[in-house]
Amino acid sequence: MDPDDLRTALRRWIDEGVIEESTAERIRAFEDLDEPASVRNSATDEEPLPSTDTESRLITDRRVVVALALMGGVLVAVGIGTFLLERWEEIPVAGRVLALLAVPIGAGGGGYRLRRRAPRTAHGLWLLAVLFAGVSLFQLAELSGVMDTLGSTTAERWLLLAWTALALVVASGLDSRPIATIGVLLGLATSVAAIDPGEPILLVGFYGAAAYVAGAVTSLSWGSVDDSTRPSVRFGSVLRWVGATLAVVALAAPTASGEPPRLDPGTGTALFGVVAVAAAFVALGLGRRTRRVRYGVLPGLVAPVGLAALWTVAASPVGRVPTALFGLACLFGVVVVLVAAAVELQETGLVNVATLGFVLGVLAFLAGPVTDVVSGPLALVFAGVVLLATALAAERGRRAVLARIRAR
């Protein structure tokens, strides 16, 4: 657990009467934690001394340090990869293998050694290890002849799966948002490569719904205990908001076109959708007695069902405008359940996704049916007025939902 997170949790547990101050002191001594001076002053009702040193405030802000560490990890990965790529043919095979193994293993080992003394720098090293591990997997497979033995397509699928599994395991262990995001996107690439759908939009939506349900399962509390103290809280929240984003984007695309699909989505995509819906039903059944689980899992059920219904309507001869209207209704339905989940889970990320879904729905409808009905300068005026109203509604709605979350 991150030292700052543990300090925050200890203070919250003391304020809520969960543990005594003496117990907190023993935990701090065991974990070798020292409270900052500002916190000690506030605990003794002393006014902390104001600081006018802007640089000091920036360095002590953990978000700035995390951003610097992560940026450093990305730049090192890109720099080493570029250096090796430029000189790849000149490096002997033994040197290639050594470099491909040394970088991710060395970065991961460094992150492990620094996990307590400098957790944010360790985070950047772990990000470097995960990013470069993909390069190492593919290049080692090519050097060893695995690509030729299994075939390039089959080998790429298994290598993507291995890279995805590594990223998700590391992200879950570190409770890392950036690495979790990378893992989810790698999982999407693996799914597309494995299923090879005719229309990838449908698979993207189903995958997003499945990722959302996985986020609910991994981090939500299934009993009466508050889930804020559970491990992998950030990891689960990333799965939810990235999955929800993919789902709303997949719903907005056919809403904008209003046309039947050009290609058959394929059996693999249909099976993926069935699995996503079944997983949501199972999660709802297991957590039916817990209000947070019911509201938290519901978007993972509404999104794939709405996407499948929209795809069915788009393939029927009802026409472009009715299809777009139906797609807009499905998208706004997902937005509503996302808002309900965000309020219940007190998760601002889902509020942002719901706002994005609302804006995308209006833009999709303007880009689709409205341009067919209205054209010329009148269409520009109408679109401008609608966009202004949409911006106002989205801003007010987002603030209202955030205020309700803070009030809980």
Automatic annotation (TrEMBL):
Domain DUF2157: 12-179
Protein name according to UniProt: Uncharacterized membrane protein
InterPro entries hit by this protein: DUF2157 (IPR018677)
Record carries keyword Transmembrane: yes
Source species, domain of life: Archaea
Membrane-crossing residue ranges in chain numbering: 64-85, 91-112, 124-146, 158-174, 179-195, 201-225, 237-256, 268-286, 298-318, 324-343, 350-368, 374-394
Alphabetical keyword list: Membrane, Transmembrane, Transmembrane helix
Pfam family, one: DUF2157
